Amino acid sequence: MVRDRGFEPLTPYVFKSRTHRLHDERGLDMLAPMSAKTESDTGAKNVPSIMRAEFPLLIGVGTAAIFFGTGSRLVEIIGQPVVLAVIFLWLFVVILWSATSVVRHADCLAIKCGEPYGTLILTLSAISIEVVMISVAMLHGANNPTLGRDAIFAVVMIALNGLVGLCLLLGGLRYREQYYNFQGVNAYLNVIMALTVLGLVLPNFTTSTSGPTFSREQAIFLAVTSLSLYAIFLLIQTVRHRQYFIESKGTAVAAHSADHPVHMRSTSFHAAMLLLYLVTVILLAEKFAIPLDNSIEQFHMPQAFGGAMIAALVLSPEGLGAIRASLRNQLQRSVNLLLGSALATIGLTIPAVLTISLITKRPIVLGVQGGNLPLLILTLAVSVVTFTSRKTNVLQGCIHLLLFAVFVLLIFAP
After folding, report:
1. What pLDDT digit, counting tens, does each position of 282-335 carry?
2. Residue 44, C-beta contacts closer than 8 angstroms, at least 6 positions apart
3. Is the N-terminal amide bond of 116 cis, ω within 30° of 0?
4. pLDDT in tens, 194-233
5. What are phi and psi of 374, to 5 degrees?
6. Is the dihedral of CA 131, 272, 323, 191 positive or negative?
7. 3-class secondary structure, 178
8. What's the rounded Cα separation, in Å, for the pair 354 and 343?
């Protein structure tokens, strides 16, 4: 008897495999909409998370809208000290909050772009804030010829003493010793020392004008040479000798890279958010400079206090970034941020202040006087000694913090 092949019975294995195939096909058909739904849910969930993370931007934009919408009525209040203090603290807190967001996005760009571009982005962002604040304060009300000098000197003291000391102390307590690239630090200190002495010490000894000021020719020469030297340094930092400013071999960065608490998104997103936060901070800083000047006059505070407040706000993004890097055993990034901020302040802010003085015909005093002059020289000398070896410890941090304490003392008890 011949079996009809058209009606061949299915074996259990064939039946089972076909059944599974049917289940798989049905499962795939059912999973397809589920997968699309999951992706849409993820995208929907990302929107609230982004809004929560970027909430400081809403506060900053809202605050800027309020102060620009009311004109100068809020910031020019002088007769009511309580209201003036509230406005001062309000703007200070919002600017500081926005500055921390600048750090967050700059950290993400630093990871994506690599060093030293990440720290350079953050440094130039902070210096733009400083130039705007000093310019507005210089042009507001009565002329304060020492405001620019006080702000520049305060940035150098806070960066090279306060923040460097804090980073070395915290890093030393956590890791005992930390390492950095000696060639990069040497390049920073060479340019910092040259421009600092030319800009803040030399005016005390020139004879073309009376007092610690520059003549017109001297001011133009210093502005051009400062910008030129800083441009040459940037060329060295980003092109010719980029390896000087990255982590030296043998550091323990890789072991702690997992401690980096950032949520990475696209480069364009972080760049756009960094720009938005930066514009917000600049707008708020423009308004903050006016109540700061009024508060100094109303409460009879030392003029140097205004420069110190501007410097504290300017350095808040870099200071936070440097402390975080030091706690992650990334001392080279801390050095890039702090020494870079001091260098950018000398190389960019002094030309900006001199330019404003030349255009507006307002006198500007640059020479550091009194007890601040030996303190400045001592700070430069201690910085050279601190960074002459390839490692740091707690003792060096304590010495820098001591010099910072002297700086604060001289503000209120010169």
Report:
1. 788 777 877 877 777 777 888 888 888 888 887 887 888 899 889 999 898 899
2. none
3. yes
4. 999 999 999 999 998 887 889 999 999 999 999 999 999 9
5. -65, -30
6. negative
7. strand
8. 17
